[in-house]
Design goal:
This protein is 16% helix and 33% strand. The chain has two helices and seven strands; from the N terminus they run ββββαβββα. The protein has a single domain, classed as Nucleoside Triphosphate Pyrophosphohydrolase, CATH 3.90.79.10. Strands 1, 2, 3, 4, 5, 6 and 7 form a seven-stranded mixed β-sheet that branches.
């Protein structure tokens, strides 16, 4: 049986933070967005959850589509629900993270990513959406002290 509600509902999205921390080199993987909003801006890989998939399936799909990366064990960090985090519509994003060896990750921009690149945590470009807040929250929760470089 299906139900219809007369009130608006937010969309659900997923985002992925991949950290590579080796020796004193601390990096995070970002994509350069190919389409609006925030065209050409850097962001975490991610996107909308389809009606027929779980959060876990959605983030693995988005990560592969945008970066070419597969077979990563992701952990759920937190949900982000700032009212105006996406100019297209009301969204709530569930953010996942993993620590990886970047040498094991063959990256290739795909889908709606113009480019994909590792960035030093000490030299992060201006990020799309609320991803600067997301990164700050992740480093604090995961107790990552930004050093080196």
């Amino acid at each position: 049986m299906s139900y219809t509600y007369e009130y608006p509902r937010p969309a659900v999205t997923v985002d992925c933070i991949l950290f590579s921390i080796e020796n004193l080199r601390q990096e995070v993987l970002l994509i350069q967005r190919k389409f609006p909003p925030f065209k050409n801006s850097w962001a975490f890989p991610g996107g909308f959850v389809d009606m027929n998939e779980t959060l876990e399936h959605a983030i693995l799909r988005e990560l592969e589509e945008e970066t070419g990366i597969t077979k990563v064990e992701l952990n759920q960090l937190q949900a982000f629900s700032k009212i105006d985090r996406d100019p297209r519509q009301r969204t709530i994003s569930v953010v996942f993270y993993a620590f990886v060896n970047k040498e094991d990750c063959r990256i290739k921009a795909g889908s709606d990513a113009e480019n994909v690149k590792w960035f030093s945590l000490k030299n992060i470009p201006c990020l799309a959406f609320d991803h600067d807040t997301v990164l700050k929250t992740a480093t604090e929760k995961l107790n990552i002290k930004i050093v080196g470089d």
